[in-house]
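Example 3.
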Amino acid sequence: MHIDTRMEVASRIAREAGAILRDFFRTMESYELKGRANIVSEADKAAEDFLVQEIRRLFPQDGVIAEETEEQDWGQSGFVWVVDPLDGTTNFVHSHPHFAVSIGLLKDKEPIMGVVYAPVYDEMFCGVRDKGAYCNGVLMSVSKAALLRSSLIASGFPYAREEQILAPILERVQRILLNAHGFRRAGSAALDLCYVAAGRLDAYWEEDVRAWDMAAGLVLVEEAGGRCSSIEGGVCDIFQGKIVASNSKIHEELISVLFR
Amino acid sequence: MHIDTRMEVASRIAREAGAILRDFFRTMESYELKGRANIVSEADKAAEDFLVQEIRRLFPQDGVIAEETEEQDWGQSGFVWVVDPLDGTTNFVHSHPHFAVSIGLLKDKEPIMGVVYAPVYDEMFCGVRDKGAYCNGVLMSVSKAALLRSSLIASGFPYAREEQILAPILERVQRILLNAHGFRRAGSAALDLCYVAAGRLDAYWEEDVRAWDMAAGLVLVEEAGGRCSSIEGGVCDIFQGKIVASNSKIHEELISVLFR
């Protein structure tokens, strides 16, 4: 079974997991905050259980790395699924609609397919290496911005509450505010990457992000004509926790403003 | 003609102005950045011309204050419309769907009605003083968060590119990251206020915001059970450029963390 079969399965199960999340999301309003934290855990677990069961049932030789699963299973087929059932957990718990299911697929450890589904917006982003990336069936391409000063840049912040961790990140946000058109912080790494692919953002960087947050989005950005790299501009290893993703044209300028 | 008539008109014309924006927005993709700036101006002007013409035709005695209009017309009826045809311009120019039409109504200089319409999301937020606030017909209420540390807080940044203006604002962002559950920067003041009203954000503050950005949203927040104030906690004057809007429960704690 080749990649097209896996893509069909990925988009179907992303949509079904999204429906699971949406059902939990809509019950959220009637709960107090403490109850909400439990609903999020339940929603996260229900969506992940569904995704992992479907993947194991259909592709028993494939590996699975998922947010809630403690061990990484690399499988025997060379294919490894990298799954985040709920990216944007903080938004979800606050009834904020900006969250998504993210499903990436690695072949021989390289990301080759990505599916991200935002259930409240009903937007399905998907792409396969060398076959383009799509949003609800429409081919995506990255923005045409050639200069940082005309670019809209997004980032995420770590959950850390220590001033010494936050200060250098805010210093970089200030460099963006001084040098770019605008700064956005939306709360979902997977959707930030989709928005770069769709040309809604010109770039996104984050310095504390997990493989399941970016495995899918990385393929989408690259297939839409963009570039993903480490913060030094080298190859982006999704297991190293840092990423710079852009329309490619502003990539060098962005890295030089942020990190040099 | 009383307030209900004006509400019916406001929601109809907000929807129609939103359709104008959406048409321009969808042509955006085929343009380079330079052309995009022109489309935004055209879209902004077309939506504002439509709104102002409809208001003047139906309520010739009312005043109108609109973003693109240079003079403020306070009219003779005691009613003044405060109109932003396109809030979230930077998002719009970047093909980012997070933007809205905002229509507020003042009676004897007090905001008494607000309508905000997000055309891509097709979400209509509206409210009238003492009659509640609604999102697509469903009654809204602010979140139940009682502590800043469990709250999601949004803000906006000024367009200023000077370090001495940005530094104190980023210092406040750091206080939020240290003390709250999360920080969001979405790029539309009107929608940030709607999201506070809808309980998707627990609070929002901004220190460089215009009357037309907040006239509508202020009514929505208050009608959904929230509170709007100056940064000192006094009455919010929409012509003074600063606002703190919250679910009311975290209001004092937020002000004290941000400004004291």
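Chain B touches chain A at residues 29, 32-33, 90-91, 94-97, 121, 143-146, 150, 152, 157, 161, 163, 166-167, 170, 173-174, 177-178, 181-187, 195, 198-202 (CB under 8 Å). Chain B has a mean pLDDT of 94.
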